Structures are given as structure tokens and as C-alpha cells.
Amino acid sequence: MTAARKPMAAFLAAWAENDARKAASYTDTPDNAASLLTSVMTNLKPSRTTIVNGDGRTEEQGEVRFPFSVAMTVPGAGEVTWRSRAQVTHKSGTWKVEFTSPMIHPELSPGQTLALKSDTNRAKVLDTHGDPLRADSLVGAVDPVSGKGTSGLEARYDDILSGGGKAGKFLVVADRQSGLALKNLTKTGPSDGRPVRTTIDPRIQKAAADAVSGAEQNAAVVAVNPRNGHILAAVNRPGGLNRALEGRYPPGSTFKVVTAAALLKGGTRPSDSAACPKFARVNGQRFENQNQFELPAGSTFTDVFAQSCNTYFVNARSRLSETDLHDTAQAFGIGGSWDVGATTYDGSVPVTTSDNDKAAATIGQARVQTSPLVMASIAATVKNGTFNQPMLVPDAVKKKFSAPTALDSEVTRQLRDLMRATVTTGSAHALKDLPGRPHAKTGTAEFGTADPPRTHAWMIGYQGDSDLAWAVLLEDGGSGGADAGPVAARFLRNLAR
Length: 497
Fold this sequence. Notes:
Layout: H1 2-16, H2 20-24, H3 30-44, E1 48-53, E2 57-60, E3 63-74, E4 78-91, E5 94-98, H4 101-104, E6 112-118, E7 125-126, H5 136-139, H6 152-156, H7 158-162, E8 169-175, E9 181-184, E10 196-197, H8 202-211, E11 219-224, E12 231-237, H9 243-246, H10 256-265, E13 279-282, E14 285-288, H11 301-306, H12 310-315, H13 324-331, H14 355-362, H15 372-384, H16 409-424, E15 438-447, E16 454-463, E17 469-474, H17 480-496
Helix pairs in contact: 8-17, 10-13, 10-16
């Protein structure tokens, strides 16, 4: 018994000192023992290990079994203890500890190891009703090993959700090849994290997600409440990039809402005669309408807005100063620093620097850049009459951005009529028979250097009889009316069910 105890005591002492190679030398299969012990010590990184050897018991001639208990102080997991036993065998004149995986921990099998897993009992990101938010591209991800948020709201609010990084770890049996946790052995108590509540309405979020579920292109849908700025839906298909809030795109003809506001402020009236030829030329640069359409003589400003006539707006640039589009965009909050509670791109409408730059800017091209959130907010501003900065996490908003200028009330009224006409007689006819009195503007935005140009498809709008404004974007998606329009119609139909 005494002879058998010596290698057992030496094995346990070396293990307690985190010397895997030395401990393994007292076993019958040193390489296997060293490999598993090294894996366990590397995974757990104990700051202290205490192993108490019990009294041995002779099983039969040449075999002695020793019980022992292990107590480890493991960073993040606290005190971890277990009981096991080892068999010491006398072979070829020498006593050796018989190495097996269950000897290291009774729950281990060959090919497995001990590891730590972060306590996933962190607080949740919630929707406006207080239920877990089901929107992966907004919520983001948590690293399964460290337990830290790595993207989205999980990353932005990691300290709050995890309780300031206090969330613990627990001991698991893991597969040595894949690292996959197979069985929990210990569990920490609940974290001190606090939930993060968003403004997302799950019914509206689902309606938007279902609307783009069959889209072949990358897509985004944003919905906001014009009255208070709450973001009711933000859908990205596929997930990953949060293009709904952070994407940067030319808005194309949806920007004509801003251009029309500048022209109306300058004295243009909806009933004014408005020419819409196939082409407009500016210093050798040719602009054209989609499919080179033209409108008949006697058309009005309402007609060219509703039918989205590029050439009219390009030719109307002479009535706009170099700063008019920039200044009018400010009334819609574009270019400000929005405190939303999430990362956003808040748009840019630079002061124009040339006649061609101004011409392209009137139709949402050149250097004009927006996000789907910005475009939904433009529609919301028309509905509300004033800009109301969007918010996703109200508790985190310290100071909402206020637009430095405001829309004239008469201009706002006229914009509403123009956007309604776009549905009833114009390019947003996909919404014509839907309930809720939708108001809209279509957009087909050129991008890249291909010839003919590739285009993003846009539609923005709001409901006349409810607090809902929205934007639909299909990346490289074709035409605003023909392609984004049906997606917007599906979204609104889903809400009406």
C-alpha cells in the first residue's frame, strides 16, 4: 500500500502545481495523460489547485484504488470542486497510476476535456412590449466563449446586459476536437445585467420581414412613428450589415421630396405648368427619365412629381441656389448628428459646387447620400409637419437632434398632396388600392460605373390615417415603382391583416 501511495501522491502533487508533464510521468501512458491535463489546465487556468488524496483500498493483488478530491479556484467561475478516484497498478516491478479520462473527472470520456463556458444568463434586448427582440441584425451576437457582445445592440450595451462584465462562467464537458460544450457541470447564479428596451413593434417588424422574405436582392425596410420618432421596424435581408440604419446610398428620386420642398418654398405651385421632355442636357451631360418617357403638354408640377420626371427637376435647378438643397435638407434633419441609441448614418446633402452637381443633386444623385432610416424619416417629417429625430433605445438617448430650420406649413400641406397624388395617379400606383390612405414617393437610384447604370430601387411613404412612415430599399433592385413598390404593398397589406 505504501509503495502504491508514492506515485499517486506524486501525480496529484504535480497536478496541483499545474505541471502536466511531470504529473503524467507517474502514469502508465504519459503522452495521453499529459495531453489531457494540459488541455484541462489551459482551458480552466486555475489560480489555485488543491487535491486531497484519500486512503487507498487494495482491489486485488497489484492493484490499489485511491479516492481523491479536487478543488480549484477558476477565474470567472469561482470555486470548482469534484471527487474522483484513480487506480495504481504494479507492473514490471513499478507502481504506475493507470491513466483514464474519467480519472481526471468522472464525467469525462475519451476525446473529451473540461472547459469553461460563459454564463449566457445575461439580460435580453427587448422589443417595445418587453419581450425578447426577434431581429438578429439589430440584436447582434454574443461570443460563446467570452460572453461579450460582438455586434449590434449586444455589443453597444454589453456592460448593461452583462452587468458590467460580471457575468460568470461555468464548467462543462467539451469535445476536444470541436470545442462544443456537451454537458454542464456547474452553473453560476444570475447575472447583474439589465435589459435594454427598444421601440421595435414586433407586429410591424414581422410584417416588414415577411414583405422582403422572397426578395432576391439585399433589402431593408424601416418604419417609424412620425409623432414621436420611435423606430417601429428595422429589417435587413440578409442579416449582418445593418443597412436599414447604417447603409449609405444615393436616394434617387425619393429625394425629390426635399427638392420639391425647396421649389415650393421658392414660389413654385403644384398647379404650375411643368415641361417633362425625354432628355435634359447640362454642359454636355445628358439626363433622362426612366425608359425615356415624356409627359404631354399641359402637365403640372403635381404631374411631374407624381410621375417622377427627372428632366423637369434637372431643368428647374436654375431656380435653386447652391445652398438651397442643403438648407432644405436640414429641415428634414439630414446631416445632423442623431442620438438614436444605435449606430446610424444620418445622411449628407453637400452644398453644390457646379451646375452639373446641382442638376444631379435635384434627383438624389451626385454626392447626396442617405440611409433607409433617413428616408423613412423624410416621409415622417412630411406626415408630422416637423422633423422628429428617430429613436431606437429611448433610455439611452441623451439629447435628441433638433432640425435647425423648419418646413413652412403650406409647403408641408403641398408635399402631402403631392405624395398622395403619386399613389393615386403616379409611379406609386402599387399602393393605390390599399387601405390607410398611403402617401408615397418612388426612387430609382443609379450607382457604380456600369453602362447602362445599375440601380437601387426605393419607395418611401406614410399612412394618412395612422402614425406610420416607412422606407423600402432593394439594393441593385431595379425600379422604385416596379420593384420596390410591390414590397411596400406587401408590407402594408401584412399590417392590414
